[in-house]
From TrEMBL:
Keywords, ordered alphabetically: Metal-binding, Zinc, Zinc-finger
InterPro entries: TRIM45/56/19-like, Znf-RING_euk, Znf_RING, Znf_RING/FYVE/PHD, Znf_RING_CS
UniProt protein name: PAX-interacting protein 1-like
The organism of origin for this protein: Acanthaster planci
Compositionally biased intervals (Low complexity): 144-180, 190-205, 272-296
GO molecular function: ubiquitin protein ligase activity; zinc ion binding
Length: 338
């Protein structure tokens, strides 16, 4: 098994590694970058992107310009896809040609009777490509998940704004109802005093007119007026009783109206309290849901980190085993050559 020169790395380090940006979630459910991620300079990110671009170019076949699929290696240590090597480089079966020329360095490679099928497979390069593609898929999944979280956060902010607007409207309704009830009470009291004052004025005018009539009447009429004056206290008493009765009726009506207004005010207050309780319950439930979602996200992140660690350990162990095998094969070949 032979590696391409451009894909060789020091043996004590992993082949490549994506940057891990830690995220912190605030109490309102909004994602914010942590202090460690904010402290990293932009130059490091640019260098890493350039390294990723260079690595992606190294993992592409120079013939089809795509990722290596079933890569094979020539004697010049250059790798190509098996299909590309068979369709472009490899001679057809049954022909007399038993060698191919590398399009990069123009070095010839001897082929066996099976043609391109006998070329050795670059297992290490295939494993690197598989890991790189898996990491790219994982990065795309994380980006999609972050987009969903941002969309969910915007929806939560819109709901919070709607709730604030509803609370303001409720407060305005309460203030308007209180002002309406006070205005109605003032109007009823003013109407009652105005009616009582008008009745007193009418009674005074009637008594004055009667006194004038009695003063200018003839003697017979004066006698009648005297009789009427004698009966005047009874009439005044009846009038006072009638006025008292009207005052009592008006007071009763005013009390009934006040009781009705108080009852309506109590009902409105109870309705507003019920609406407020429902809103508080909904907010409490919403907060509980947000907490549960936050806990689930933390659990998923922990599981993902554990899986990535296990995969990394497995890959390191496989790499060590393969390196040990290569060393053993090299020792055997040296022994055989000796």
């Amino acid at each position: 098994m032979v590696l391409n020169n451009s894909m060789r790395r020091p043996t004590g380090r992993p082949m490549f590694q994506f940057p891990v940006v830690s995220l912190s979630i605030s109490h309102k459910g909004c994602r914010q970058p942590s202090k460690m991620a904010a402290a990293q300079p932009n130059a490091v990110n640019e260098d890493f992107c350039a390294c990723l671009k260079k690595l992606k170019e190294d993992l592409q076949c120079p013939l089809c310009l795509g990722y290596f699929e079933d890569p094979v290696v020539l004697t010049c240590q250059h790798s190509f896809c098996r299909e590309c090597a068979g369709g472009v480089l490899g001679p057809r079966r049954g022909s007399d040609e038993a060698e191919v020329v590398c399009p990069l360095c123009r070095q010839k490679t001897q082929l066996g009777p099976a043609g391109v099928e006998c070329l050795p497979r670059n297992f290490h390069l295939a494993a690197i490509i598989e890991t790189f593609q898996g990491a790219e898929r994982e990065r795309e999944r994380l980006e999609a998940q972050q987009c969903q979280q941002q969309r969910h956060m915007h929806n939560q902010q819109d709901q919070q704004r709607q709730q604030d607007v509803q609370q303001e409207q409720l407060q305005e309704i309460q203030e308007g109802q209180q002002s309406q009830t006070g205005h109605q009470r003032r109007q009823t009291s003013q109407q009652y005093h105005q009616e009582a004052y008008n009745q007193q004025q009418q009674q005074r005018w009637q008594t004055e007119e009667r006194r004038e009539q009695v003063h200018y009447l003839q003697p017979q009429q004066r006698q009648q007026s005297c009789a009427q004056q004698r009966s005047l206290p009874q009439w005044q008493q009846q009038l006072q009783q009638h006025l008292q009765k009207q005052k009592h009726d008006l007071a009763m009506q005013l009390r009934q109206k006040n009781q009705q207004l108080q009852r309506m005010h109590r009902e409105r207050q109870e309705q507003l309290q019920e609406m407020w309780q429902q809103q508080t319950e909904q907010q409490h439930m919403h907060q509980q849901q947000l907490r549960q979602m936050h806990q689930q996200q933390q659990q998923r992140q922990r599981e993902l980190r554990q899986v990535l660690r296990e995969q990394h350990q497995q890959r390191q162990q496989q790499f060590r085993q393969m390196r040990q095998r290569l060393r053993e094969q090299g020792v055997r070949l040296r022994q055989q050559l000796q």
